[in-house]
Amino acid sequence: MPRSKRRSAADMGPDDDDRHCNKRFRNTTSVRRFSKTEDTSSPFNQKRCITWFREYTSPDDPDVLGPEGMEKFCEDIGVEPENVVMLVLAWKMNARQMGFFTQQEWLRGLMDLQCDSISKVQSKLDYLRLLLNDQVTFKSIYRYAYDFARQDKDQRSMDIETAKAMLQLLLGKHWTLFGQFNNFLERSKYKVINKDQWCNILEFSRTIANDLSNYDVDGAWPVMLDEFVEWLKASKDVRRS
């Protein structure tokens, strides 16, 4: 999840100062009202969940939590916006756009998790991370990430920089050949990745040995992965398992 851009004090006018003070007051109220010491065993309360959501939205758009609210939400639950657990949470909500939660998405995900406060979400963070260990669930999250991270929803492809960042987030720690694949993308002609390529990258990472010994040149892999294998063999950078 991206961080929002902050304006300096020199860029702010009197009205901005008032809004900043009001927002700071709301945020202080939020921390006090939804403290980390709450009882996590209390039943889920939808009204409370919506009230909590509104602590991260603006009066001009109360039904959408945007980048500034997202940053504050992440700060409250103690998670960096770029942490993979935020992607899992967005998947739970079936959020459509990176950096934003609508009220409907917020309720969908947090009702499923039975969370209506900071402390309850914090108590679920380990559970959300553990979901990544299940291969079927991980595949669902991985596929979801493609549509979620695309900046332009009208185009079917994802720009290469966003794709590399998401692949690092999802496969960087688990795929031995990820470093080489990332280097290949850096040097390649590819400017975008389509969904077929995206899905096959995961399949490749799961099924092809580090030394490429079981790679079938006549298989139905996308050209991108054929080229990666050729590049890797040419660079003599294949890691022996």
Q: Could you explain how this protein is built, in words?
A:
The chain has 11 helices and 4 strands, in the order H-H-E-H-H-E-H-H-H-E-H-H-E-H-H. A two-stranded antiparallel ribbon has the order 1-2. The protein has a two-stranded antiparallel ribbon with strand order 3-4. It is elongated and about 60 Å long. The chain has 2 domains: 11-132, Recoverin, domain 1; 136-235, Cullin, PONY binding domain (Recoverin, domain 1, Orthogonal Bundle), CATH 1.10.238. Helices cover 57% and strands 3% of the residues. The chain has helices spanning 14-33, 46-54, 67-77, 84-93, 103-113, 118-130, 135-149, 160-171, 178-187, 195-207, 223-235; strands at residues 64-65, 101-102, 158-159, 192-193. It is mainly alpha-helical. It is found in: Nucleus. One of its GO terms (biological process) is protein neddylation. Residues 1-23 are annotated as: Disordered. This is Defective in cullin neddylation protein.
Annotation keywords:
241 residues; Defective in cullin neddylation protein; 11 helices; 2 domains; PONY_dom; two-stranded antiparallel sheet; Recoverin, domain 1; disordered N terminus; DCN-prot; mainly alpha; DCN1-like_PONY
Cα-atom radius of gyration: 21 Å
- Give the amount of beta strand, in percent: under 5%
Structural class: mainly alpha
Number of helices: 11
For the record, what is the CATH homologous superfamily label of the largest domain?
EF-hand
Mean pLDDT: 86
Using the 3D structure, state the CATH architecture of the largest domain.
Answer: Orthogonal Bundle
Contiguous low-pLDDT stretches (5 residues minimum) are 2-37
How far is it from the N-terminal to the C-terminal residue, by CA? Answer: 34 Å
Assembly category: single chain
Count structural domains: 2
Number of strands: 4
Could you name the CATH class of the largest domain? Mainly Alpha
- The run of helices and strands is HHEHHEHHHEHHEHH
The biggest beta sheet is recorded as: 2 strands, antiparallel
Helix content: 55-70%
CATH topology of the largest domain: Recoverin, domain 1
Shape from CA axes?
elongated
GO molecular function, one term: ubiquitin conjugating enzyme binding
Domain DCUN1: 44-233
Organism: Cryptotermes secundus
Main location: nucleus
